[in-house]
Amino acid sequence: MKKQLLVIGVTFALVLAGYGSAATNDEESTKSAEVFHEDMNDMVHSDDGSIPNGLMKAANPTYAVGSEAIIQTDHMEGMQGATATIVGAFNTTAYSINYTPTDGSEKVLDHKWVVHEEIENPAPAPLENGAEVTVLANHMKGMEGAKAEIESAEQTTVYMIDYFSTTDGEKVTNHKWVVEDELSEK
Fold it and tell me: For 105-153, what is each residue's pLDDT tens digit?
């Protein structure tokens, strides 16, 4: 409940700030609101650790399963600077996607990451930027079954991680996915 009130309050403040600034353009405001929407509301933290069919374990990952690393990304609030415990490491192509959720929510831009194995009947990897796909992943509300456009592709090792949020101390288990360059040595 506290998170929902915080989200409502921050959203209201962002709306009011948008009205007070003549320098803000509509495109930047829309993208900021959509990224905020993604980060704060819709992340689904599945703790089952399920792995998509066909995803191959990395033979010799930089960060071994059971090791710790520092998170150098902010896919969601509380990630940046947190200590991650590596739960899984897999070699694949990771995609940043733009998609419109199936639940009628606002369009999400530059969602990181969906792996090749989480796309319905994909062509061989890597898919081209702009390719239209159907997402099988359920990382966020309304993601599974959504039509998406590939924003970018990265051939890499992806990691499933556990960490404690730096903002509220809550444990996040089996977070999918961070790519190798979003982690650093502890």
Answer: 999 999 999 999 999 999 999 999 999 999 999 988 999 999 999 999 9
Distances (CA, A) of 78 to 107, 174, 178: 23, 15, 14
Separation of first and last alpha carbons in the chain: 34
Q: Give the least confident one: 23-37, 74-88, 151-165.
A: 23-37
User: At 105, which amino acid appears?
Assistant: S
CATH of the domain at 98: 2.30.30.1210
Instruction: Output the CA angle 135-137-140, nearest 5 degrees.
Output: 105
Asked whether residue 63 is domain-assigned, the answer is: yes
Q: Domain range for residue 26?
A: 2-41
